[in-house]
Amino acid sequence: MAPLIAGNWKMHGSLASAAALAGAVRAGWQARQGAAELLVCPAAIHLPAVAAVLAGSPIAWGGQDCHAAPQGAHTGDIAAPMLADCGARYVILGHSERRAEHGESDVAVRAKAMAAAAAGLRPILCVGENEAERNAGQAEARVGAQLRGGVPAGFAGDIAYEPVWAIGTGRTPTEAEVAAMHGFIRATLRDVLGAGGAAPRILYGGSVKPGNAAALLGLAEVGGALIGGASLKAEDFLAIAMAARG
Ligand code: PEP
């Protein structure tokens, strides 16, 4: 599969600015035609506007979360079939901000991943240790537990390794640390999904910028990037995408 370059627009923008950003990404990608697969994940309420701009382009759009139930009395939540109805092909699940701010457990993330798959969406399941866990030598233990608890049998999605302390901070692990963790994640996934299971792409996320993208995306087992801040600037997002080799 082509490397996936995914933008998480979080809770930013307006209808007009989201459509304008999508338009700039579309026009810029058409001019460049890189090897990566591109995805943008705007706020759910902006999805129809972004979908209208990106329809007919190779750029996918997706959600930032979904509920585990396909419908029901869940005030304020978004069901996976609703995202699919907006033409979404992907959904980010278990982002560290959702885990921290909404208390999402691995069990909840697993249920959401199953709901996403049932709706025909491809989940991007986020894992990652916090700074105290890394300093204590517990990074692999934390990520391993998140994978074993959060990845359902038959998982056909992607994983995003996002060290919590690298998100929005301008700090990143060393290349050796990223490569080691991605190798660990691949080995754990083989164990969790079995030898015949699908091989998810393993994206790196956490302060990816145009200046560090080529080095990070060139590492073994790095199958793309999940990008927050830099995805809000079309030129930066596209520069990162161009650093990905097919
Ligand atoms: C993120 O929130 O998923 C993320 C990677 O953010 P940033 O690129 O801003 O560190």
Describe the structure.
Helix content is 43%, strand content 15%. It has 246 residues and is α/β, with parallel strands linked by helices. It has a single domain, classed as Aldolase class I (TIM Barrel), CATH 3.20.20. It has an eight-stranded parallel β-barrel, surrounded by six helices. Helix 7 runs parallel beside helix 8 and helix 9 (210-217) runs parallel beside helix 10. The longest helix has 19 residues, at 175-193. The model has no long low-confidence stretch (mean pLDDT 97). Phosphoenolpyruvate (PEP) binds at residues 8, 162, 167-168, 205-208, 226-230.
List keywords for this structure.
246 residues, alpha/beta, TIM Barrel, eight-stranded parallel beta barrel, 10 helices, 43% helix, globular, binds phosphoenolpyruvate
Topology:
Layout: E1 4-8, H1 15-32, E2 37-41, H2 47-54, E3 60-63, H3 80-85, E4 90-93, H4 96-102, H5 106-118, E5 122-127, H6 131-135, H7 139-150, E6 158-161, H8 175-193, E7 202-205, H9 210-217, E8 224-227, H10 234-242
Parallel strand pairs: 1-2, 1-8, 2-3, 3-4, 4-5, 5-6, 6-7, 7-8
The structure holds phosphoenolpyruvate (PEP).
Question: In a few lines, what is going on in this structure?
Answer:
By secondary structure, the protein is of the alpha/beta class. The protein contains ten helices and eight strands. The protein has a single domain (4-64, 77-173, 193-207, 229-242), classed as TIM Barrel.
